[in-house]
Design brief:
This is Cysteine desulfurase CsdA-CsdE. Keywords: Pyridoxal phosphate, Transferase. One of its GO terms (molecular function) is cysteine desulfurase activity. The protein is of the alpha/beta class. About 35% of the residues lie in helices and about 15% in strands. It contains nine helices and seven strands; from the N terminus they run H-H-H-E-H-E-H-E-H-E-H-E-H-H-E-E. It has a seven-stranded mixed β-sheet with strand order 1-7-6-5-4-2-3, with helices on both faces. The N and C termini lie far apart (about 40 Å). The model has no long low-confidence stretch (mean pLDDT about 90). The structure holds pyridoxal-5'-phosphate. The site of pyridoxal-5'-phosphate has 14 residues, from helix 4.
Length: about 260
């Protein structure tokens, strides 16, 4: 049996009487994470990738090993596929501006479900306005389910991006990603962007079997310190979706 008290005991912020029911927004942090952050600032703080002294070397090595840990967590084929961002919101904007903006033409379509978080709608509306493309929404099915028939009817050769959640924060619906991706591949050349911000918390995610082009999620909903999030980008051998340079700091994406 799960020892709930032992789990509660790991979270100083919910010690005592507090009941916290907002983990979908952000999780409280366990003592191990708090200790790790404190240890870092007390002993290892330095600029990453920008120095020659030993603290920089240590900080850089820990920073890069975190990328390997995240790659393993979602079964990416290489840590080079992992890009740090400040938010799932920023990650989706990054894809919109560094991939979609260069690719979309007037008349192209971006398919999003009606159940998306605004972070997975607004970046597409902005890039649609910039390029003359159009955002098309897939209406919700009965019982708040994803409407696969409507999706099948809407996808066509003009569809260049399909952007859907793994699990929606709006209704809690688990989207049938395998079906969505199979239908996309069979009927279009569209790139698939999956917003895993809620899904990664509840499902084991294997980006290699998922077969999306981009997968985005938030560390702060997974007990990590605030404000690190991730974009996974499929390797060039799996996907043609290449991102343009951004802020030119030596890596694609931000860091
Ligand atoms: C499904 C979904 N996508 C995106 C986001 C935005 O995440 P972030 O706060 O990391 O920008 C959230 C936040 O609640 C979410 O639930």
């Amino acid at each position: 049996m799960t020892d709930l008290q032992a789990i509660r005991d790991q979270f100083p912020a919910i010690d005592g009487e507090t009941v916290y029911l907002d983990s979908a927004a952000t999780t409280q942090k366990p003592q191990a994470v708090i200790d790790c952050i404190t240890h870092y600032y007390r002993n290892q703080n330095a600029n990453v990738h920008r120095g020659t002294h030993s603290l920089t070397a240590l900080a850089t090595s820990r920073f890069e090993s975190a990328r390997e840990t995240v790659a393993r967590f979602i079964n990416a084929s290489s840590e080079k596929e992992i890009i740090w961002t400040r938010g799932a919101t920023e990650a989706l904007n990054l894809i919109a501006q560094t991939y979609a903006r260069n690719q979309l033409q007037p008349g192209d379509e971006i398919l999003v479900s009606e159940m998306e978080h605004h972070a997975n709608i607004v970046p597409w509306q902005i890039v649609a306005e910039q390029t003359g493309a159009k955002v098309v929404k897939v209406p919700m099915g009965e019982g708040c389910q994803f409407n696969l028939d409507a999706f099948r009817a809407l996808i066509n050769s003009h569809t260049k991006i399909v952007a859907v959640a793994q699990v929606t924060n709006v209704t809690g619906t688990v989207l049938p990603l395998n079906d969505i991706i199979a239908i996309t591949r069979a009927n279009s050349q569209a790139v698939v962007v999956v917003d895993g911000a809620q899904g990664v918390v509840h499902q084991r995610t294997n980006v290699q079997t998922l077969d999306a082009d981009f997968y985005v999620f938030s560390g702060h909903k997974l007990y990590a310190r605030g404000y690190w999030r991730t974009v996974w980008q499929a390797s060039p051998t799996r996907s043609n979706a290449t991102m343009a340079w951004w802020r030119k700091n030596g890596r694609k994406g931000l860091v």
